[in-house]
Amino acid sequence: MKNLCSLLIISFFAISCSTTAYISPQKNAENGVGKFLSNGKEVGLSVRDSSTVAFYGKRKKREITLFVLFRNESQGKYINIFPKNVKVYGVNPDGSSDQLHTYNPQKYLKRMRNRQNLALALSAMGKAMEDYDAGTSSTTSYGTVNSSDGTSYNYYGTSTTTDESEKRAAQAENQRQLSRQARQAALYRNSVKNGLLMKTTLFPGSYVAGNIIVKFKSYDKYRLVVPVGNEMHEISFKLVKI
Q1: pLDDT band per the 50, 70, 90 thresholds, residue 239
Q2: How many CA atoms lie within 13 A of 50 on its CB side?
Q3: Where are the beta strands (DSSP E) in the chain?
């Protein structure tokens, strides 16, 4: 349990930024479901003969992020873990349930990459417009000219000059900013990828943990259903603001 708490505390910091609501698991002693606190946040715990599941999470905007830990407690059996088998249901007032959409890890990362690429493209367009105007200055002149026959003419004109050295410096700075944004996007995408739960095999005494992303839909109560081998873990929870 000490190692489990340590892992959950470390993982909490990775998903605790800009949250709107946290998971509040509901105890159920008959089903072996309890909860404890990790860094002030509630963690659900479900214990069966051959497996243990612990989880906590948050809702941010239109997604619920669940950090789920699986441990194989069996003496001689390996267990295959498949993220797609983890289900979250919204519970209606009449007791019926609606399954929420769980994002496939690969499709979720692809969607994130597409959104990042769009943001980078829009940023590049803005930088290109800045490059076009960089180092450019306009001078406006106007006055009156008198001809030999006594006729007066008004004139108005604009001249444009470009400082090439200033323009090159602006272009180089904008390129550095775009490169930095691309690196930051890649780093963030990789951090999300490394945190997502992937399919794996658990040998006796081993554990695996990772994030599962669920599309948010408002309900008063939710139910997490986690099959592990031949055992089923069910934990009810609510979303509460802190």
Answers
A1: very high
A2: 16
A3: 21-25, 33-38, 41-47, 51-60, 63-72, 79-81, 87-91, 97-99, 136-146, 152-162, 200-202, 207-215, 221-228, 231-240
**Could you tell me if 61 and 180 lie in one domain?**
no
Residues 63 and 77 grouped into a single domain: yes
Q: Which of 57-61, 89-93, 234-238 has the lowest mean pLDDT?
A: 57-61
Angle between helices 105-133 and 164-195 (to 10 degrees): 170
What is the band of 112 on the pLDDT scale with cuts at 50, 70, 90? Answer: confident
Beta pairing partners, 144: 154
Q: Is 135 left (phi over 0), alpha (psi -120 to 50) or beta?
A: left
Its domain, for residue 216, covers 2-105+196-240
Query: Is residue 124 located within the same domain as residue 181?
Result: yes
Predicted TM-score (pTM) of the model is 0.68
Domain boundary (168, 190, 212) is at 190
| Number of structural domains in the chain | 2
Contact 93, 220 (CB under 8 A): yes
Tokens of 102: 């769980």
pLDDT for position 136: 62
CA distance 83 to 81: 7
| Closest CA relative to residue 101, chosen from 235, 227, 214, 222 | 214
Q: Which long-range contacts (CB under 8 A, 24 or more apart) does 111-115 make?
A: 112/189, 112/192, 113/189
Query: Is the domain of 162 the same as that of 101?
Result: no
